[in-house]
């Protein structure tokens, strides 16, 4: 995800370089908050069944190769620090998913064992005592039916209440769009503060010593990370298609990914269109802009496999 950036020098700020800085700052803000929505979604669900572990593992491998390539190429410390953060965040999300999968698998095994023991005890229980037990549990005629009806009514009222809250409030797409706007504002404001304080300076596109060539090994690692980023989402897309569901996935997670990749690619392109520069940053451009197509595919799946709108309820 990180592209090679030369050491900043004091040069005059141009509109293209300013846009490159703004887009780069927005991309940085997107990457920092990227995994937070999915972590929260897993915590709320108490499960990680919605997200593909293969997706996360391949993505983690991409971040590892990206970090190795950044270190090999001798990129600026901020790029290396961001690559380290990516790897750490990946490990946190993968650990959370493994934890929930392990806990839920154990709970399911206990439930099946308990159900098997219950069925075995029912088969061994004498018929007469079983009938008496069923009669006592039923109580007065119609009481069991009323309890079931009451429970059903409570569930129906709860679902109608949730539907009413969803209709009266904002949809997930609107709330997430507002979050995206907030990330853009934070990123742009961060760049403005860094520019005014002198922390951020435009990177010159012309080098008196000629273009600096990147080590072949660093280039290979860059292409390897791009391949991993491109292939990571394929298991998730296949999983969504097979299950015809995106339940358990955070929509904001993929929206932030799309925003980060889009602004990252824009930051590189606005910085320079020179052939040497584009060839040097090509692996990172492929890895960022190429995944946007896959993110768009997942958005389509969210629309196709999302829950249908609740039917309107007439008030009597």
From TrEMBL:
Q: Where is the composition biased (Basic residues)?
A: 144-156
What is its membrane topology?
Answer: Multi-pass membrane protein
Primary site of residence: membrane
Record GO cellular component, one term: lytic vacuole membrane
Q: Where in the cell is it found?
A: Membrane
**MF GO annotations:** basic amino acid transmembrane transporter activity
Catalysed reaction(s) here are: L-histidine(out) + L-arginine(in) = L-histidine(in) + L-arginine(out)
- According to the record, the segments passing through the membrane are 18-40, 52-73, 79-103, 177-194, 214-232, 252-273
| InterPro entries recorded | LAAT-1, PQ-loop_rpt
- Name any Gene Ontology BP term: vacuolar transmembrane transport
Q: Where is this region: Disordered?
A: 122-163
Keyword field: Membrane, Transmembrane, Transmembrane helix
Recorded family membership: Belongs to the laat-1 family.
Q: What protein name is recorded for this chain? A: Vacuolar membrane PQ loop repeat protein
